Amino acid sequence: MKQAYAWSAIAAIVLASTTGDVLLSRAMKQVGDVGALWRQSGLWTVLGRVLRNQNFLLGVLAMTAAFYSLLFGLSWGDVSLIAPASASLTFVTNAIAAKIFLHERVDHRRWMAAVLVAGGVVLLAA
Amino acid sequence: MTFRKYLVLAGVTLCASIGDSLLSRGMKQVGNISLNHLHDLILAVLNPSVALGILLLLGFFASYMTALSWADLTYVLPATSLGYVLLTVIAKFYLHEAVTTSRWIGILLISAGVGFVTQGPALTHHPASAQSDERGCEPASAGRKDERQAMENKR
Question: Measured between alpha carbons, how far is A60 from A23 in angstroms, rounded to an integer?
Fold first, then answer.
């Protein structure tokens, strides 16, 4: 039962954080280079532009769901299983989602990274 | 990639792994939470370790957002996954969890993945934003611009 709780928490984390990552990445691309914007027009401009971005707010909502799933999972399983398993599975789903929704060029290096990390996850869970 | 950008990526890595470890220690102190007592999950933030963990995860979030503003999602995530190596070391020596050989090999594979992705470019150059050809990006972003205009007009 403990295992079932831990793995359903992992599934929930992966789904929520992939959604969140894609939304946040899209939001920050709309905001633009934060460092340059900060130097140019100050911290408040940066904060204002980020906080008023709709994708950012939706992304934070998804990340909050992922965070509470993580807390839930951590009360049932080891941190060295839950945290790497969920966040690393997110690599594969993120690579797919980033290609489809963000039109990122996921080349062989990036697929290789995703596959290696996925292999690492299988071993972490063994 | 400048030195400052590598510092931001290091911030993402360190804050995430140390923050997660603190959360784990705190949640072990809080104890198992069952589906029947989900409100315990909300009260869990009162535990000092959980609170400090959340603080570090806020630091993680700020540096993560900064990184995403100048790099692809599929670059930032693998590039910062060295945190799992750190997380395993922390889990072994501070939380005293058992870390088996196969988990160590898993960590090794993840590290290899980091090596692959950091050799490539950090940001996808979208031809749609520079020139006006193909890809299907242009109509999408144009549509978004129209939406924003419509929102502003409403206001």
Answer: 9
